[in-house]
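Hello again, I could really use a second opinion on something today. I've been staring at a protein lately and its backbone has me curious. Can you walk me through what the tokens say about the fold? Take your time with it, there's no hurry, and the full record follows here:
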Amino acid sequence: MAFAIALLALLPTPAFAHASDRGHVLLLPTGYYLIGGAFAVAVSFLVLALLPAASLDKFWRRRLPLFTLVDGTSTTTGLLSFAGFAILVAAGFFGSRDPLSNPLPLVIWTLLWAGLTLLQGIFGDLWSWLNPWHGPWRLVSRLLGTGDGGPWCLPQWLGCWPAVVLFFAFAWFELIDPAPDDPARLAYAAGLYWSFSFLAMLAFGYRDWSRSGEFLTIFFSMVARFAPVERDDNGRLALCWPAAKLLAAEPLPPGGIAFLLLALSSVSFDGLSKTFFWLGLFGVNPLEFPGRTAVIGSGSLGLVLTFGLLAAVFLFAVWLGQRLAASDQPFGQAAGLLVWSIVPIALAYHVAHYLTALLVDGQYALASLSDPFGLGWNLFGTADLQVAAGIVAGAESAWWLWNIQAAAIILGHVLAVLVAHGFAWRLHPQPGRAALSQFPLTLLMIAYTVFGLWLLATPTVG
């Protein structure tokens, strides 16, 4: 997949902007991030100083039982999802070349990457019903009589590093490639990735490859742990506090740590790469932006550096916290647990970053789905939908969007602090040592709060 994307980058193609670039850019008032940073400091201090471990543990364990949901149609929904995916890829090849009229880029970048991520964080694991690999794999494996496993086994040392590599290739294609929403180009990449993953599932087994190499399944399963909806092994649903399920997670291996940090750093770089500050570092005049083709090198470097810097700072904060607490816990275990606190922050950045694109491009997606091949169809009665781009324009709309974006980032960091402290007491039963271990990580989260709000407050190329 990474090699295919590299080949795509070398092919001559018209330079399209990314789908989210078509959303309106709203600059958060500067005072918001100052207030937000101060609020994060205050909440962090209160959590450290006043909340006993028993009270916080009781808070996270509260559940409200709902009903039982029988899971017996995942194969059928998977086959339907694959059929829809195949139609979208065909539309990419044979439909309109306009990214705002062709449903493929709008569904992948807006409804899937922006919209489904948000829904996963609210309702839980919807992806298991929509996964376009499960139905075809189940059907083919039964026809071949191969069962649930594959003829080969993945080495244990490989972990989920294949997913890290593929996720980086996906992030590069989304953020750096000159034309990520050119329909034909995207159809080629999406079709190639589906085929590669399907063959890997047949070779190594659906479960093993989904846990090691299929980055969408891994990403969505991590996000689903944030959702306030919990489903046990018997299908019983219950409501819990947002992020409560994260505290039941086991320590992630090094590949899992890298995966979560990459998820946060990539969306952070997406925002940073459009700022006047970043472009000025490479001598690019943001008022005469030359297009994405001119910044491939600096963008690739920035994507790697952002990930490397975040990983280094996070691991240093965990290491320093362990030293301050005089901990005898293995460093890998501490990092593997505490990295789960990144999930609320990554989801908050996702919401804040893609909110305007979801509101505007989501309408284009609804219209394009009724006429996927540009033949004048109106399958769902939405082909003539008048897109209301003004939904994010005007003082009142801007005020609401500013507050939603700022609240998402602040709330995400506050929940991250709570989750991190829950893991700290799991690692260090003594309150004093638990508090000491969290000072460096808390400072990192406060700094990231200010950084995230600064991204919303600084001028960008949109």
